[in-house]
Structures are given as structure tokens and as C-alpha cells.
Design a protein that fits this description.
- It contains five helices and six strands, in the order βαββαβαβαβα.
- It has about 160 residues and is α/β, with parallel strands linked by helices.
- It has a single domain, classed as Rossmann fold, CATH 3.40.50.
- Strands 2-3-1-4-5-6 form a six-stranded mixed beta sheet, with helices on both faces.
- The longest helix is centred in the middle third of the chain and has 15 residues.
- It is globular.
- It starts with a strand and ends with a helix.
- Bound molecules: guanosine-5'-diphosphate and magnesium ion.
Length: about 160
Amino acid sequence: MGATVAIIGRPNVGKSTLFNRLVGKRLALVDDTPGVTRDRRPGEARLGDLKFTIIDTAGLEEAEAGTLEGRMRRQTEEAIREADAILFLIDARAGVTPLDAHFADVARRTTTPVILIANKAEGRAGSDGLYEAYSLGLGEPIAVSAEHGEGLADLYDALKPYV
Ligand code: GDP
Ligand code: MG
């Protein structure tokens, strides 16, 4: 059995874009509207010579009851349980938001390894957000652009020990 990697984070940080980038197909729905991902269908990801199962998570699941925060938290906790490693995404352009901090609280409590990713960092964009990301207490952030395919070598190095 190969490793499973879950992508978590608040809506609109680029989780589905990264999922699609790693799977190489447009399986996950990407949209500017937060919460458009409605399933947690796994994909077969490739990154260099690494092969693993990747799980995209939605920011919101309509079928579940409760508050938005509660739904996102439950989904995140499920993904964390299933995974051998977690990719925790923030939007480097937006910086660290209260909702990012909320997700980070959940992520810090797990024994599953968490890799912190500052997405949307193409070119020089998001350098402030990259520094802010240290405040989440999840170690050194990796600057990535899921949309432009940047930072994937650093992502490879970070994932290699776990997959
Ligand atoms: P999710 O809600 O976390 O799954 O986020 P999505 O993957 O649906 O992306 C939300 C928005 O961010 C979309 O408009 C994407 O095109 C955009 N986006 C995703 N990755 C990047 C990136 O690396 N750079 C930039 N500039 N935009 C991105
Ligand atoms: Mg999505």
C-alpha cells in the first residue's frame, strides 16, 4: 500500500489547484467561490519519482449539519486520520488569517507529519505571507505556486521522507 497525503486548509487557498497539479488532471473543481469542492475523492499523485494517493478536502460540505467551522474542522480531522502526511496550505498573498490559525490549531495537535505550504507565491508574490506563516507553529513554510508549478522541488524534498 502506498502512502496517503491529505491537503487541508481554509477555502480558496489553492488546495484543489495543488491536487490537480499533482494528479496531472483536472479532477478537482477549482473555483473562486470558496467551498466548491464537494467530495474528497482521492487521486493518484506523482511528484518526480514519488507516487502516492492524494486527498483534496473541501472547505465546506453541504450535506453535513452544524456550523461552517464545525464542518470544516470535522473534514480536516478525518483527512488527518487517514493520511501519512498532511499538506497544510495558506495563501501567501493573503497572509495568515484567523481561519488559518484555527486550522493550524487542529494540525498542531496531530502526530501526523504536517508540511506547511505558502501557496500563490509565484515570482516574488507573497513574501510577507511567507514570513507570517512561521507564526503558525508548524515549522518552516515552503513557498509554492500550485497554479504555475513553482516550488515543487522543495515540496518533493519535504514529502520524500513520508511517501
Ligand atoms: P481551494 O478552495 O483551497 O480548493 O482553492 P482552489 O484550488 O479552488 O483555488 C482558489 C483560487 O485560487 C482559484 O481562483 C485559483 O485559480 C487560485 N489559485 C490557486 N493556486 C494559485 C497560485 O499558485 N497562484 C495564484 N495566483 N492563484 C492561485
Ligand atoms: Mg477546493
